Amino acid sequence: MSNRRAPAYLAGYPPALVHQVTTLIEQGRFADAMRKRYPDAHTVRSDNALYDYVQALKAEHLRSAPPLGKVRFDNSLHVIHGALGTHTAISRVQGARLQAKREIRVATLFRATPEAFLRMIVVHELAHLRVREHDKAFYQLCQHMEPDYHQHEFDLRAYLSYRDAGGDALWGA
Asked: 117 versus 74: which is more confidently predicted?
């Protein structure tokens, strides 16, 4: 039995599942399995395309949520520090009123991943427009917007573990 530590991205998952992922990574079979499951990267490459993508999801599931001022890919978000995407509300005083602008930023890493991963991140950040905390209601909303949310989150975490172990990007740049 080896003394390897579980990948941080998979903390909280059952040990048997973590073992399957780490074994695939160690045996060099992870990349093929992931490419088989997710053969293609999405085509959302620019900030404008990302804005349109997010707005379409918002219009479909969260019509009455507050409007978004900005949506963009962000080079300064580092997955290593736990930020896959962020949502912020910036308040500014305009005359006698307080104006709030909401922003969603997605780590640039997700510019070249399968659409399922991008959608999972965007759904997560959109859910924060309604529910601030990561509680049961939050994850129910995420699953409402993306029925396979939990599976895509696990697969993304497994992919990040693979990258953390020195694996190459699988879907190009």
From this structure: 117
Residue 85's CB is within 10 A of a number of other CB atoms, namely 22
pTM: 0.85
- Residue 105 has φ and ψ, to the nearest 5°, of -125, 135
What single string gives the DSSP state of each residue in 41-86?
--S--SHHHHHHHHHHHHHHH-TTSPPEEEEEEETT--GGGT-SEE
Largest Cα–Cα distance in the chain? Answer: 66
If you write DSSP's letter for every residue of 89-115 in order, what string do you get? EEEEEETTEEEEEEEEEEEGGGGGS-H
pLDDT of 5-22, one tens digit each?
Answer: 556 889 889 999 999 999
What does each C-alpha distance from 105 to 78, 118, 122, 130, 160 come to in angstroms? 12, 12, 9, 17, 18
